[in-house]
Design a protein that fits this description.
mainly alpha; GMP Synthetase, Chain A, domain 3; 2 domains
Length: 279
């Protein structure tokens, strides 16, 4: 879903160029990127720093293109964006002493530290080279050819690079070890004949998510008489306040999904509503 959202401004830019011209396409790209950022902010509650940088570059250089009626500025935009990616990887590695690629992929892969360094360096080189290649195409080919390269060529080169890197990393890939305290024990299941209680939810959440903080509040009485709540509303509405190491680097939607998955057995036994607060 995220990849689809990221592609929308590119697709709209390409369509506007084909039907109109580079200046209309530039205006469409600016508006689409602004709407994209607003959507991500509303959906996730936050926007990644590189997405803010992308917005700033398209607004500044796209705006310069529209004001001066000079397409050179918008042609520089991909190069500056690729170089910004490369610079972010370099700053993270050299100044902050953190490998940005490892931060993103470390939960899925375990690699020796020297290999992580090579992966980070390879992405830095790829983005730097792609920025140079974009300028070369922009200066030596017609605008229509540059648009095709920007939309299709850069995407194809990125996919090829990812495949080559996957082949290189294949011999190092293995699932990350799960620490004993995070291993998932069998899920306790409440007796169907008894009403759902805060203790039932706490047991499931502790078993699946190993929370560092957990508070389960039964708010069922506040909904007594409502649809799906029964006469007294017992065991139907709960509020969960929780913190867990499994939530690290996950978006709020994914964090909530882990909570819902953990209490899934109760959904068919009368649990009607769950308010979640991630601490």
């Amino acid at each position: 879903m995220k990849a689809l959202v990221d592609l929308i401004p590119v697709v709209l830019f390409f369509a506007a160029f084909k039907f109109f011209d580079i200046f209309t396409a530039t205006a469409v790209a600016i508006v689409a990127t602004v709407v994209q950022i607003l959507y991500l902010k509303r959906r996730d509650g936050q926007v990644a720093p590189m997405q803010w940088i992308t917005l700033a570059i398209i607004v500044v250089f796209g705006g310069a293109t529209l004001i001066t009626h000079d397409e050179t500025f918008i042609k520089w935009k991909p190069t500056l964006l690729y170089w910004a990616f490369a610079a972010a990887l370099l700053v993270g590695q050299v100044i902050f002493k953190k490998n940005p690629i490892k931060v993103v992929m470390g939960a899925q892969l375990q690699l020796p530290e020297p290999v992580w360094g090579k992966v980070n360096l390879s992405w830095m080189g790829f983005f730097a080279a792609l920025g140079v290649l974009n300028l070369w195409v922009a200066q030596h080919y017609a605008t229509a050819d540059w648009v095709n390269f920007k939309v299709f060529g850069c995407t194809a080169l990125t996919l090829v690079f990812v495949v080559i890197q996957a082949i290189f990393l294949a011999k190092h890939m293995h699932p990350p070890e799960v620490s004993p305290e995070l291993e998932t024990p069998p899920m306790p299941t409440p007796e169907p004949s008894k009403p759902i209680t805060s203790e039932h939810l706490s047991a499931l959440l502790k078993a699946r998510l190993n929370p560092t903080q957990l508070e389960v509040i039964d708010e069922s009485a506040d909904h007594a008489g409502h649809a799906e709540a029964g006469a007294d509303g017992s065991g139907t509405h709960f509020r969960v306040r929780i913190a867990s190491p499994l939530f690290t680097d996950l978006r709020p939607v994914a964090q909530h999904r882990l909570v819902y998955d953990a209490v899934g057995p109760l959904m068919s036994q009368g649990l009607h509503a769950l308010a979640i607060e991630v601490l």
